[in-house]
Amino acid sequence: MDNEITHSNRVSPSSSRTAWFTEAGSPHHRLQWQVARTLFVGDSPYQHIEVLETEQFGVALVLDGILQTTAADEYIYHEMLALVPLLSHPHPARVLIIGGGDGGLAREVLRVPGVEHVVMVEIDRAVVDVARQFLPGHTSALNDPRLTIRYEDGVQYVTALDAAEAFDVILVDATDPEGDGPGQVLYTTEFHRAIRAALLPEGLYAQQSGTPIYNPDVLTRVARDVDQEFPACRVYWCTVPTYPGSLFTFTVGSLGPEPLIPIRRLPDEAPTRWYTPRIHAAAFALPPVVAELLPDRVIAAQA
Fold this sequence. Notes:
Blueprint: E1 11-13, E2 19-26, E3 29-43, E4 48-54, E5 58-63, E6 66-70, H1 74-86, E7 94-99, H2 104-109, E8 117-121, H3 125-134, E9 147-150, H4 154-160, E10 167-173, H5 189-197, E11 199-210, H6 216-229, E12 232-239, E13 247-254, H7 277-282, H8 288-291, H9 296-302
Parallel strand pairs: 7-8, 7-10, 8-9, 10-11
Antiparallel strand pairs: 1-2, 2-3, 3-4, 4-5, 5-6, 11-13, 12-13
Helix pairs in contact: 5-6
């Protein structure tokens, strides 16, 4: 991939020559971040990649025009996606991450006691390479000997697993399904069925399911599929300042453990910036505007 810094069509100067990155939250709403400089622009076989240094949130990774993560607020998303399911599981020894190429999710997973082996399946090697160069806080754990990185299609990897390779916890950290990006296939019924088959007894699965403000259909689709494929489906949320609407959801499928309340804790020497046991429990308290998007069984379980 070409590492030459070129002009990005999505970063444009205003009349005062201040550069702004603009993202469409919906056809009728846009988000903007002031940009100090463009660090990288290039194309992989899968997507357009940009790295921007923003004034408010530091270095930001942008894929196909959508801001994915920033140095300033990434901890909220990564702590909540990793720690809620892992601290709800009695023995999360084997963990699979599908996607997660920026490295932040692996970092959080690897500091949970009892985690022995993590496999990260990322289809786009370029994302990992760019993150290593520009997001060192995200990628600080990518050289951990417990982590194996595989550059291949996550659906094909999960589908080909046999029982001896199953996992205690599977986390999906993918781009949104809109457009033509590589994340589309990770929001299908067939994929959720394959996820269940790849879990050990008492397994847990969690996936980001988008913002109910701008993309309610994504949450509804994922929750419906997981409710059909798993004995238990739960939905929780947090606020991520740089995501459209800030309100962001995660969907959990469980083969046994109840994720509503944590049963394990991080050691004192592993402090968090967002997650706490009380926030873990509170995150499953759903605003009515979110609950109305979910199957009745999910709503009843979290009432």
